[in-house]
Specification:
The protein is of the alpha/beta class and 441 residues long. The protein has 3 domains: 3-38; 66-274, Rossmann fold (3-Layer(aba) Sandwich), CATH 3.40.50.300; 278-440, Ribosomal Protein S5, domain 2, CATH 3.30.230. It has helices spanning 62-67, 75-81, 101-114, 128-137, 152-162, 187-204, 225-229, 276-280, 328-341, 367-379, 405-414, 432-440, and strands at residues 3-9, 15-16, 32-38, 69-70, 85-86, 90-95, 119-123, 145-148, 166-170, 208-212, 232-237, 244-252, 260-266, 269-272, 291-298, 301-313, 321-324, 349-355, 387-389, 392-393, 399-400, 419-421. A 9-stranded mixed sheet has the order 8-7-9-10-6-11-12-13-14. It has a 4-stranded mixed sheet with strand order 15-16-18-17. Strands 2-1-3 form a 3-stranded antiparallel sheet, with no helix packed on it.
Length: 441
Amino acid sequence: MKLKSIYLCSNCQAQAPKWSGQCMQCKKWNTLVEDVVNVGKADSLKSAALPLRSTSTLSVTNMELKEKRILSGSPELDRVLGGGFMTDSLVLLVGDPGIGKSTLTLQICDQMAKIGRKVLYFSGEESVGQVAGRAQRLDLKHAVDLVNINNLESLLATIEVEKPEFIVVDSVQVMSSDEVVSQAGSISQIRYVTERLMQVAKAQKIPILLIGHVNKEGNLAGPQVLTHLVDTVLFLEGDPFHQFRLLRSTKNRFGTVDEVGVFKMESKGLLDVQNPSALFLEGRAENPIGSVIVPIMEGTRVFLVEVQALTSYTQFGHPKRTASGFDLNRLNIIIAVLNRYAKLKLDSCDVYVNVVGGLKLKEPAADLAVAMAIASSKLKKPLPPELVVMGEMGLSGEIRKVTQMERRQKEAEKLGFSQVLKPFGEGDLRLIDQVMRRFFI
């Protein structure tokens, strides 16, 4: 097989030998994308039909599935993976720079070595001394074989000789193959490298963990085909200035994508958080103004999170709205509803909203909590300390139900919150002005 780099137009699929700003066929700008084609002589192979097997004759028990999984030593990571690493899985771990990807990976390698598995760590960005120094700072005790390498063929030859049982490639964007005539990190290189590593994982039954980069928008860098090739895509997210990290799965062929893992960054690495709600509420003041607790769903788990709001009269003609951990457009809608139906008169006030702990609230169940926090700050009246709030707000001032309301309420009661404000609950509060009259008048 002999590969050659070409450039394809994403609009008309025309081919070009080199990149240019404009496609010569359809005259569109910035549509040429690098690709590779096989220009070697094709082998004449005869194909034979394969025997068929019906799903009704195949049965895989839960015990057989568990035997194929390898525990990582982290209950939170195993929860997201669906029970651990599959023996032939190709897993991609993605996150912002400095978020803790390499730290988590080294901890996984240490646990794999602890249970007697031979681990190979291929580092393309850092030297062996740098990786070993990080392992010593994390106080990892078990031996992990380290290799500094960027060439795919050398990497595959090392795997063939060493026969590892767990492989880490850090990172897939810096690996390159001699078979592809382009620089490391290009679309053709990333795709070819991932395809070869996938063949190794499936043929030799070796779990492989790839580390990937993100672009400035926070999405996975590189071609979208990289997401299609791997079995599982894990995103490690969080604020580098806070302790908490959330591990989510956006794709998982061996489990669900509903689970989320919570970690806490300490001097000894990322530690599993078994009770996130208690940790997120730690340090909350008594009877605070502009503070509301909201139970949110992260996968199948319920977290209790504190939402804070601050209002102050603006010194300029245009009031400022700022949100940390909450969508700014959604905040503007909530302010407009409060102005129209709750008569709060926020047109002359700056409004600031913050989600404690560096979390990002995306589900609509937090709408009512944000509105209550803003009203508490504007009217300078604290809410009951035993109260939790949940509900979605509509543009007509109505409060709507959210999913899993019973589970959210049970988690709140478990942590000592006896009063729950929810749509269609006690008193049948359905409009935002009814809520305001009940708690602030």
